[in-house]
Amino acid sequence: MDALNQLFSLSGHVGLVTGASSGLGVECAHALALAGADVALAARRGSRLEQLAAELTASYGIKAVGVQADITSDDELDHLLHTVQARLGLIDILVNNAGISPTGRAEALPRSTWDAALATNLTAPMMLAQRVARGLIEAGKPGRIINMSSIYGLQASSIYRLSAYTATKAGLANLTRQLAIEWAPYGILVNAIAPGWIPTEATEAGIAKSQNRERMEKATPLGRLGQPQEIRGAIIYLASAASSYVTGTTLSIDGGYVAW
Ligand SMILES: NC(=O)c1ccc[n+]([C@@H]2O[C@H](COP(=O)([O-])OP(=O)(O)OC[C@H]3O[C@@H](n4cnc5c(N)ncnc54)[C@H](OP(=O)(O)O)[C@@H]3O)[C@@H](O)[C@H]2O)c1
Q1: CA 230 to chain centre
Q2: How far is the CA of 23 from the centre of ligand 1 (A)?
Q3: Residue 245 catalytic?
Q4: Interval between CA 64 and ligand 1 midpoint (Å)
Q5: Do residues 43 and 100 lie in contact, with contact meaning Cβ atoms separated by under 8 Å?
Q6: CB-ligand 1 contact for 150 (6 Å cutoff)
Q7: At CA 97, angle to CA 96 and CA 102, rounded to 5?
Q8: CA 150 to chain centre
Q9: How far apart are CA 246 and CA 214, in angstroms?
Q10: pLDDT-derived band of residue 210, with 50, 70 and 90 as boundaries?
Q11: Position 191 confidence tier, pLDDT thresholds 50, 70, 90
Q12: Ligand 1: which atom is nearest the Cα of residue 195?
């Protein structure tokens, strides 16, 4: 058991999960807490964060704090990081999970929709990653950054019209590689996760439309959609000693979808 703990325990670490008010972010927070990390939760719907923080503390006996923040605002990011540092200490695990997935025909996509996707899915993860990395570099400590990309960061979508989404998620996957190279000398490992179709607030309505679920299941070798909690193992792996020689990669959690 000790050897298993050495591989996967996150005790003594401090994680920050963005987009922890719903969906996969909730599962990322559970994963870190389950492995023993103290956890900070960020999103705009603050009351949901308070609720989850109380649940994590009660279930796992770790410290958890919720901080309401819009990650597209630099001021709110600064406030977020100061608050987390004051309450939990130096963040050494960042999960850049928050994201939006606006749809619309490419030829008619409003500039504002494009800009919003970029701000949330690509610029905010970079702004957070650089703040967390600066703290670690100054403190001389190693750390982990996990970016939530998508199968649509690796391929385009034949089901949805997702030009802004696919562009930002592909950007995030390549940003992951670049940051991994730049921060390897500091022991900061940077990886991404690429989930397939998983029902959440963001995806449920689309999955329910016409033949979508059937098409998605057919396109997935395992023949089914994912469940949100199936993201947990990858988060613990990429945050822990188990992945100490892994950086710059994107791990697909997609039932084999990108293997075709
Ligand atoms: N579900 C899937 O099938 C799937 C597949 C591939 C990738 N992903 C990715 O997984 C991540 C989570 O998606 P999900 O499916 O769990 O969707 P979700 O339930 O809609 O969660 C999105 C989260 O992002 C937060 N968020 C959005 N804009 C924000 C902002 N400006 N500031 C702070 N927080 C913000 C939301 O919180 P507030 O609204 O409270 O701010 C929410 O907690 C996304 O990056 C998504 O692209 C999901």
Answers
A1: 13
A2: 7
A3: no
A4: 20
A5: no
A6: yes
A7: 120
A8: 10
A9: 35
A10: confident
A11: very high
A12: 6
Considering only CA atoms, which residue is closest to atom 14 of ligand 1? 23
Q: Please state the atom number of ligand 1 nearest to the C-alpha of residue 202.
A: 20
Task: Answer yes or no: is the C-beta of 207 below 6 A from any ligand 1 atom.
Answer: no
What count of residues does the chain have?
Answer: 260
Residue range 31-52, pLDDT digits in tens? 999 999 999 999 999 999 999 9
Check if 24 has its Cβ closer than 6 Å to any atom of ligand 1. Answer: yes
The CATH fold assigned to 7-253 is Rossmann fold (3.40.50)
Q: Would you state the structure tokens that stand for residue 177, as one six-digit string?
A: 């590689």
Are 49 and 67 in contact by the 8 Å Cβ rule? The answer is yes
Q: At 152, list the tokens.
A: 């649509």
Residue of 60, 152, 160, 165 marked catalytic: 165
String of DSSP letters for 43-108 = ES-HHHHHHHHHHHHHHH---EEEEE--TT-HHHHHHHHHHHHHHH----EEEE---------GGG
